[in-house]
Predict the 3D structure of the following.
Amino acid sequence: MQPIQLFALASRQAEWLQVRQQVVTGNIANANTPKYHAKDVSPFQAVLDNSDVGMARTNPAHFSGSEYGDDNDIRVEEAPLNQEVGVQESGNTVGLEEELSKTGDIQREYGLNTALVSSFHRMMLMVVKR
Amino acid sequence: MDPLSAALKIAGSGLEVQSTRLRIVSENIANARSTGDTPGADPYRRKTLTFGAQLDRASGAEMVGVKKLGEDQGKFTEEYDPNNPAANAKGYVKMPNVNMLVEMADMREANRSYDANLQTIKQARDLISSTIDLLKSSS
């Protein structure tokens, strides 16, 4: 029987959420930059599914999920065009409200993640302390 | 660099450009009636700035920076004020090409963007502290 890789999974998701937070922050900081296109990360499901096809990074300036090893493949891609905002006069496609609601999602999911980790940790301690 | 510190850094760059923008707006508003001091001289010219995305090589983060400070080449309006030292032979004074309405709108937008950046800083801080809380609760 396979042990449940909960902690591995949880830290994977936490990392994904952190990268997403970074990308969303970049979008918000560039909300008034001409010709800037909003970005997003590939969905977590996709990150879990294809953990073997990552693009090689040949230059440190290339985008990558993070600097921790090459086994992660959180990819930063251009976000689908927000239809309510569209392309603004300056060629910018960032919708501030959408990005802020994304940060809310990230916060909630991260809270759930850390709560789950700590409760599983408590369970393990319970077993060990017997 | 881990993504959350990068996020803090990016949001910091966002705060910086938006405050530069506010500075430019207040310079423009403060100088909305600054005329020249010799007859026929040009008055204050409205300042502008543009932003550009900058890739931070160390962290691979997409930061933002002021790309170019420029001047508005728009026409000056003229007002009849023969007693002004900058009045020309016909008594007209060139007034700065500052439009209060535009400056106010720009100020509001800068404000809004500044708030959004602050919000992301708070958010990143919350995420970091909830990670740290994992250590606290499991004693």
